[in-house]
Amino acid sequence: MIAQVARMVGLVGLGFAASMAQAQESSNQVVVEEQWSVFVEENPKECWSVSEPTKTVNTRDGQTVSVTRGDILLFVVNRPGTGGAGEVAFTGGYPFRPESTVSVAVGGETFQMFTDGEWAWAHTSEDDAKIIAAMKKGADAVLTAESSRGTKTEDTFSLIGFTAAVEDAAARCQ
Q1: What is the pTM of this model?
Q2: What is the domain count for the chain?
Q3: Which end of the chain is more exposed for a tag (fewer CB within 10 A), N or C?
Q4: Phi, psi of 15 (to 5 degrees)
Q5: How far does CA 140 lie from the centroid of its chain?
Q6: Of 84, 73, 91, 72, which Cα lies nearest the Cα of 129?
Q7: Distances (CA, A) of 6 to 87, 97, 112
Q8: Range of 107's domain?
Q9: How far is Cα 163 from Cα 18, in angstroms, rounded to an integer?
């Protein structure tokens, strides 16, 4: 599953938007925890947990539509020296509507992520921590967004294996 979609990237602060466009191939999958996989890169050192959605719904004008999308992936990325704090990132497989947000619903909580091109991130490290904490307690995460063409997308990610994968990636990049 994820091994077939192993286009991973380095994500460093806000300045990483440009590097996202130049996704690098990674075959360094080190662990699979149910629905989540852990990858490690050495230069620069980065460790991330990642998953594909278990369900995707695309709508336009309230009607379900068939659309072509690239990779749809939800990440938590860790780097040495961050004390195990992870950064949440999402790629929806299409360019998001400019100046839009991606809504992340986990349990009864909802969070907003900002977008840039085909990527979305939490606004602050505090938001990252809140999203990760909710995901550790939740059963699934539903990410809702809108494409630059007006298609609304709802991607559901299972959180089975999330905690183990996130903790494994954080430990590998301490």
Answers
A1: 0.85
A2: 1
A3: N
A4: -70, 5
A5: 13
A6: 84
A7: 18, 25, 26
A8: 2-172
A9: 29
